[in-house]
Amino acid sequence: MTVLRAACIQMRSGTEVGPNMAAASALIREAAGQGASFIATPEMTNILDIRPGMARPKIVAEAEDASLAAFRALAAELGVTLLVGSLAVTLPDDSRLANRSFLIGPDGAILARYDKIHMFDVEVGDGQSYRESRAYRPGTEAVLAAAPFGKVGLTVCYDVRFPHLYRRLAQAGADILTVPAAFTRVTGEAHWHVLLRARAIETGCFVIAPAQGGRHEDGRETYGHSLILSPWGEVMADAGDVEPGILIAELDLAAVARARARIPSLGHDRDVPLREY
After folding, report:
1. Residue 205 is a catalytic residue
2. Which of 8, 151, 157, 205 is catalytic?
3. 52 to each of 59, 86, 127, 133, 219, how far by Cα in Å?
4. Long-range Cβ pairs for the range 193-200 (8 Å, 24+)
5. What is the pLDDT of residue 126?
6. Which of 47, 178, 180, 269 is the most buried (most CB within 10 A)?
7. Would the pLDDT of 127 be above 70?
8. Where are the domains of the chain?
9. pLDDT per residue over 56-84, tens digit each?
10. Spatial separation of the C-alpha atoms in residues 154 and 145, rounded to whole Å
11. Is 157 a catalytic residue?
C-alpha cells in the first residue's frame, strides 16, 4: 500500500466505561465511512478519572474488558486497522494497573500490545499533582508492530518527551509512530506541537497523535489538537482544541524514504565518551 487514509479520533472521555465505548465506536464508524483504513483513538479511551480510588473499581483485566472485545469486533466488521490508544487494565501480578495500547488488525486480531513506559509524575502548574506511577506500572519494552500497510511504532503520551525511544523505533524500521495522548492544557499549549514535530523530523516518520480534549467529568482539562504529521515535520491535519470528532489525512508512505534520503541522520549516530570539567 502506497497511500494510506488515516484517521485520529478526538475524544473527551468521562468517568464511565460504557458511554466512552459508545462515543469512540460511533466516531470510528464515522471515520471508516469516510474511507479511513487506519483509525486511532486517544490515551485512556475507556475511562478518564484522576480522582483517588474512583476509577479502579470500573477497571478489569484485559481478557474481561468488554470495550476491548467490542473494538476488536468493530475492527473486523469495518475491515480496518484500529489503534486503541490505550485502555486501563488490571494486572495479575501487581496491585497497579497498565496503561496499555492495542493495535488491532482488520480481522479483529490483536497485532501488538504496548504498555506506556514513561510515567507522568509532575507538577504542571494547573493546580493538580500528577503521580501516574502510584497507580500504573511502567512498561519495560519498546514495541514495533507489522500492520497491513507498514511498520508502526507504539508509544503513549508522556513518552513523547523521550526522543531516544522514537529514534530506536525508526532505526528498527518504523514508518508511522503513534502518540495517543491526554495532554494537560498547560503542557499542551507550551509543548504539544513542537514535541510531535520534532519526533517526526528526527525520525523521518509519519506521526499519528489522537488526543483527549476539553474539560472532563473528573475536573481535568486536556489540550486536544489531535495531529497528523508528515515525515518532514509538516502538520498535515489538526483537530483543534476541544471538540470530539475525527481528523483524516492521506499518508503517502513513500514520503518516509524520501525524507530519510534528504536527511539521513538515522544512520549518522556516533557513540562518543562524555568528558566532564
Report:
1. no
2. 157
3. 14, 20, 16, 13, 13
4. 193/225, 193/227, 193/235, 195/160, 195/161, 196/160, 196/227, 196/229, 197/229, 197/233, 197/235, 198/163, 198/233, 199/160, 199/163, 199/166, 200/229, 200/230, 200/231, 200/232, 200/233
5. 64
6. 180
7. no
8. 3-263
9. 889 999 999 999 999 999 999 999 999 99
10. 8
11. yes
Active site residue 8: no
Per annotation, catalytic residue among 43, 132, 151, 205? 43
In degrees, rounded to 5, the angle at the alpha carbon of residue 252 between the alpha carbons of residues 197 and 267 is 60
Residue in 229, 237, 207, 244 with CA at minimum distance from that of residue 28: 244
What is the mean pLDDT of the segment spanning 14-32? 96
Domain 3-263 has CATH 3.40.50.1820: no
- To 5 degrees, how large is the angle CA 244–CA 69–CA 219? 35
Query: What is the 3-state secondary structure of the chain?
Result: CCEEEEEEEEECCCCCHHHHHHHHHHHHHHHHHCCCCEEECCCCCCCCCCCCCCCHHHCCEHHHCHHHHHHHHHHHHHCCEEEEEEEEEEECCEEEEEEEEEEECCCCCEEEEEECCCCCEEECCCCCEEEHHHHECCCCCCEEEEECCEEEEECCHHHHHCHHHHHHHHHCCCCEEECCECCEHHHHHHHHHHHHHHHHHHHCCEEEECEEEEECCCCCEEECCCEEECCCCCEEEECCCCCCEEEEEEEECHHHHHHHHHCCHHHCCCCCCCCCC
